[in-house]
Amino acid sequence: MTLSFAVSLRCQECGKEYPFESGLYACPECGGKLEVVYDYEAIKESFSVEKLKSRPWDHWRYIEFLPLDSVHVTLHEGGTWLIRSRRLAEELGLKNLYIKNETTNPTASFKDRPISVGVNRAIELGARVVVTASSGNAAAALTALGARAGLRVVTFVPHDAPAAKLAQLRMLGATVIPVEPVEGELGAPTVKLMRLSWKKYGWHPVPSFGPFNPYQIEGAKTLLMEVMEELGFSVPDQVYVPVGGAGLLSGHIRALDDFRAVGLIDALPRIIAVQPEGNRPFVEAFRRGSEPETWPNPRSIAGGLLDPYTWDWRDGFRALRETGGTAVAVPDDLIWEAQKMLARYEGIFVEPSGAASLAGLMLELREGDVDRSDLIVVEATGSGFKDLDIVVQRTGLPEPIPGTEEALEERLKSEGIL
Ligand SMILES: *Cc1c(COP(=O)(O)O)cnc(C)c1O
Fold first, then answer.
1. pLDDT of residue 135
2. What distance in Å separates the CA atoms of residue 357 and residue 243, rounded to the nearest whole number?
């Protein structure tokens, strides 16, 4: 018996359907990606906007749309703020620019949303050990809740992950295993080892992409649900979404599916997916109109967007096709520019992956055809504290001065204040 409104798990590859209670992580027939199917009629009867009013501002307010019996552990994920931009909007010549500030999540990235759902489902399924493959943020989210739940957490991370991300994981108590690529093998070696330990040791896989865990990905949809609620149950004109494995992007179409199915919205935003130029398998695939190929040599300052294969491309395609959206690739210099602008015009300190969405908007403003009065949302997905190396590398640290008036005046002049 389940208390959730999830009724079954359907394979996106072969179409076979299994009872939700089976607790499967992937299709046992073909190995394909499963998706959670809900009883929308039952949700309609139970859920109302009226009920939302008395619930705390975290993402469990949408519990009816999540595949869980109840919430076992939480640090109050989600519940972030949609911030109206003033100075940045003016600088870019836009009338209605909003920033969804995901840096205020418990472990400082949006990954707390999907992973908190994944951890809670793993607890319901009796997990003792959970394992993930991550550039660092999903691993941090998993390890924090794992600590609260008393689970053993094993994380496979890229060998060159930023020190701040590794430190966060160590401190939270994960077994942290940085993995180097294997000569001549394509694809992420972290994912390979996660898959291997799931099959071999029976650990529960909780990455932030769908093919190995259909539950967590449902948590990604609460970001757009919150945006829609914050806009009074209406949709923006445009939403810019950064894409790594495309779990977040697929959450967007599933949020729209859910809110449409129960009659909360009747329009769709245009969704624009953004990848770095140095790793753009999804952008290329969308332009071609066929399944992505594994990117041979992912390179970018946006470490959270370096998945060489876009796991959730199918839902990602749907998110763009059904909303009349598109996919764009941005150079690292523009990502860095966007990172500085978010900090200097709005006071929001993001990591490069968290600035890619704004970089995508800046590119569209230069090259595309953007209506400047549109209501536009950019998603600032992760905190700048996650990757201090990049900031120190690019800006250096200020030199101290002697504590004298002369030295002060000299410095103020060189800073352009005097
Ligand atoms: C993971 C991540 C992304 C990309 O999300 P996907 O679901 O992998 O597409 C974007 N920004 C940050 C900060 C991330 O950690």
1. 87
2. 9
Query: Residues 177-192: what's their mean pLDDT?
Result: 93
For residue 248 and ligand 1, the question of a CB distance below 6 A is answered with yes
Alpha helices in 16-175 (DSSP H): 40-46, 49-52, 87-92, 112-124, 137-149, 163-172
Q: Does 191 contact ligand 1 (Cβ within 6 A)?
A: no
* Ligand 1 pocket, residue 382 CB under 6 Å: yes
243 alpha carbon to ligand 1 midpoint, in Å? 6
366 Cα distance to chain centroid: 26
Q: Choose one of 208, 249, 286, 300 to mutate for the ligand 1 pocket test, by most ligand atoms within 8 angstroms of C-beta.
A: 208
Task: Look at residues 134, 135, 152 and name the one whose alpha carbon lies nearest to residue 143.
Answer: 152
pTM for the model? 0.96
| C-beta of 208 in contact with ligand 1 (< 6 A) | yes
Q: Which helix (H) or strand (E) holds 82?
A: strand 81-84
Query: Which is it for strands 34-38 and 6-11: parallel, antiparallel or unpaired?
Result: antiparallel
Q: Assess if CATH 3.40.50.1100 describes domain 81-106+217-394.
A: yes
Answer yes or no: is pLDDT of 250 > 90.
yes
Cα 210 to its chain centre, rounded Å, is: 12
* CB proximity list for 317: less than 8 A, separation 6 or greater: 285, 286
Q: Name the residue ranges covered by the structural domains of the chain.
A: 81-106+217-394
358, pLDDT greater than 70? yes
Between the alpha carbon of residue 241 and those of residues 196, 259, 327, 415, the distances in Å are 30, 19, 9, 36
- What digits encode the pLDDT tens for the residues 199-224? 999 999 999 999 999 999 999 999 99
**Closest CA to ligand 1's atom 14:** 304
Q: How many CB atoms lie within 10 A of CB 407?
A: 12
282: CA distance to ligand 1 center in Å?
A: 14
Strand locations in 218-369 (E)? 238-242, 270-276, 326-330
